[in-house]
Structures are given as structure tokens and as C-alpha cells.
Amino acid sequence: MASLTKKERSPFWFACYTSPDGRRTKRSTKQTDRRKAQAMAEQFERAAKLAAQKRLGEAQARRVLGDIYETVSGGERLLSSTAKDFLTGWAESRKVDTSQRTHAAYAQVARDFIESLGARAEMDISQVSKADVAKFRDSIARRASAASANKAVKFLRVALGRAHKDGFSQDNPAAKVDVLKRDRESRAARRAFTLKELGLLINAASDEWRRIILFGLYTGQRLGDLCRLTWQNLDVEKNELRFVTAKTGRNMVIPLAASLVSLLADMDGGDSASAPLFPAAHDTFAKAGNAAPLSKQFHALLVSVGLAPEWENKGVGRNGARELNAVSFHSLRHTATSLLKNAGVSEIVARDIIGHNSEAVSRNYSHVDEDAKRRALAALPDLLSPQSRSGKLP
After folding, report:
1. Are 228 and 252 within 8 A, CB to CB?
2. pLDDT beyond 60 at 184
3. CB-based contact 14:21 (threshold 8 Å)
4. Nearest 5°: phi and psi at 153?
5. 368 and 361 in contact (C-beta within 8 Å)?
6. pTM for the whole structure
7. What pLDDT is stored for residue 145 in this prediction?
8. Residue-level pLDDT at 314
9. Which of 31, 26, 1 is nearest to 16 (CA)?
10. Residues 133, 135: Cα–Cα separation, whole Å
11. At a CB cut-off of 8 Å and minimum separation 6, what does 318 contact?
């Protein structure tokens, strides 16, 4: 039987009734008069029962509830949207207030969650449950990692929080879902490249990938940031690279190691300062909105020199998990850090070059001296030497 309840700080009565799927549901009546609110609650439950008996389809039931609400509330429509329509619309709306990379990530999570919902994606957004979000989180953790799963939950909290704020639902089910503890063993499995492995990669890579690898090593930067670089990010007079990281928004100024200066001298910059430093990678990144296709290309390069196995899905399609490989493009950041420290470079200087946050830097320095960074980068081995290209470095 339909009943009423009140929530703290709300003047309105909430109708409590059984939804078509058998769950107990609360929905605001927007009524302060108890008698009107009770009548509305009973109409809600009546329409829900008809839907449960298959005398009304879910979409039709929502229309009936909307008509009831409009009549009782004096013309105000009850907000309603399918989960699929709401999430798709929400992702599209974020184009105007987020970066291209962030929007692409939001849109991908929305698509993946809709796929996870299956037929339930056609239900009202208010019916999305904590169990739906937890199921989605766990499926990502199985095929990717706990970190990826937690990021997806974070994005869903934003999307479903908007549904709650805009009046489409009574709560945010994603806010009730716990994040997963990250697997320490999986994180520890990543390692730096050896110099011999770097020599093998450089020898086997295409010209553009060879340049990207060298930039990754001598700057310690992420693949996505490197692929977005253009010639105007280079200060040829000072031999410096200047850009803003996509992940942290940090302004980076990195002196160019001698190997990169030599490499750039052989590269054609064209007539435009806005021309990409790595044209093919730049186009691939722009089309995908992220570095995932480029990570796959790099993995294929690793496979070709025996540093990684072929990826085998433990499932079907996107639900298949992939084995975590010991090295990836991100390993170049670890490699750069290790080489700098092995050369006696202080942790503060190494962190500033790579772009790692450091409490010590924030606390004791407004900036790290550019000469100190140049001396540090000069201590790195020359991967352009004939010995490196033959893959014979120790």
C-alpha cells in the first residue's frame, strides 16, 4: 500500500510505493498538503501495479505517472528520461565545459555503462541502482584494473549526481558505491626499461616512433602529452620544451638533452609553427580523443622485439581482460627517473623534470634552477649512438 514520508529539510511529502520491478520506491509529490500527497501516492502505486501486470509498458507507465503529477501539481511536468537518453545527453553537454580529453573520457564511460545496463538502459534514470554501478565497476576491474574501475565510478558519480540535482532521481546511486583497493602486486609489476631493451626498441621502431620514444626517455613525459606537441612548443633559441600537461595542468619547461637537439636538427618542421611534432601520432590522438590506439601501437612494437606477449582477451569483446605487461610506454617515465637518480641527480631535480608532484619542491623551492636541470639531462646516456641502435648497450 502506498504511504507517505518526509525528508529532513524538505517541506514536501514523498510517496512510498512499489515500483514495477518490485522495489520500494520514493518519489517527491511536491505537495505540502498531506491529503493531496496521499492521493498522488496511491495513483503512483496504481500505475506501477498496472505496469507490473504488463497492462502498461514501462514507458507508458512513466507517461501515466507524468500525467498524474501534472494534474495534481497544477501543470508542472514530472521530469523523466531513460538512462540511455540521459547519460548520452549528459556526456554531450560536457563538451562545452571540459577539455577534449575529459569529454572523450566522460562519453566513453557513458557508452560503456549503457552497454553494461543492457535492456535496463531503456528504464527511467531514477531506476538506476547501486547494484548497477557496482556491477559495472567490477566488470572494468576484471578486464582492466582497479584504478580504471575507480575512475569510471568517479565519472558516474558526476553523471548521476547531475540527474539527482536536476530532479530526475531521488539520490545518486554511484555515490553509495565504494572504490576498490588497488592491487599492489599489479602496480609493482611495472618496471623501467633496461638500456639494452631501449636499444632494441629504437632499432625496430619506425622513424616517428623512434622520435617519440626518445622524447619519452629524455623528457619523461606521458604519451598523450607528447603526441599533442607542435613546433611552437619548442624554444629553439633556449633549446627548451614548453607545454601544459593534460592530466595535471602543470606548466612544464624542460631543457632539451643534447640527443634531442641532434634529433630535431634532422626533422622537417615545415612552414607552420602549429604543425605537429609527430604528425601521424597527432592525427591518431585527435581522432580517438585519447592515447589508447597509440598505446596499442607501442605494445605491438614491444611484441615485435620480444618484450611483451600478444594480448589475449579473457572473455568476449571489451569485457575481455588483458594481462598486465611489465613494460609499457609509461615505463619510459620510470626509466628516465631511474637513470637520473643513478647519475646522482637529486630527487627534487628529477621530480621537476619528470613532472612528479613533490612536497619538498613545493615547500622549499619556487622553481628548480634551469642549469641544474640541464646538467641532470646531460648525465643521461646517448641513445642515438651506434651502440644504442644495435641494441648492444649493457
Report:
1. no
2. no
3. no
4. -65, -40
5. yes
6. 0.57
7. 77
8. 44
9. 26
10. 5
11. 112, 115, 143
Whole-number Å distance between alpha carbons of 322 and 92 = 30
Per-residue pLDDT, 311: 62
Residue 354 pLDDT: 81
**Domains of the chain, each with CATH number or no CATH:** 3-72 (no CATH), 83-187 (1.10.150.130), 190-389 (1.10.443.10)
pLDDT confidence bin for 231, thresholds 50/70/90: very high
Question: What is the share, in percent, of the chain residues with pLDDT greater than 70?
Answer: 80
Residue whose C-alpha cell is 528520461: 81
Q: What is the model's pLDDT at position 317? A: 43
Using only the alpha carbons of the chain, give its radius of gyration. Answer: 28
Q: Are 106 and 94 in contact (CB under 8 A)?
A: yes
Tens digit of each residue's pLDDT (9 = 90 or more) over 276-322: 999 999 999 998 888 889 999 999 999 999 998 876 544 434 444 45
Q: What does the H/E/C string look like for the chain?
A: CCEEEECCCCCCEEEEEECCCCCEEEEEEEECCHHHHHHHHHHHHHHHHHHHCCCCCHHHHHHHHHHHHHHHCCCCCCCCCEHHHHHHHHHHHCCCCCCHHHHHHHHHHHHHHHHHHHHHHHCEHHHCCHHHHHHHHHHHHHHCCHHHHHHHHHHHHHHHHHHHHCCCCCCCHHHHCCCCCCCHHHHHHCCCCCHHHHHHHHHHCCHHHHHHHHHHHHHCCCHHHHHCCEHHHEECCCCEEEEECCCCCCEEEEECCHHHHHHHHCCCCCCCCCCECCHHHHHHHHHHCCCHHHHHHHHHHHHHCCCCCCCCCCCCHHHCCCCCCCCCCCHHHHHHHHHHHHCCCCHHHHHHHHCCCCHHHHHHCCCCCHHHHHHHHHCCCCCCCHHHHCCCCC
- Longest Cα–Cα distance of the chain, Å, equals 88
For residue 20, the model assigns a pLDDT of 73
Cα angle: 368, vertex 245, 219; to 5 degrees = 60
Please choose, from the candidates 209, 227, 275, the residue with its C-alpha nearest in 3D space to the C-alpha of residue 100: 227
Q: What is the mean pLDDT of residues 354-364?
A: 53
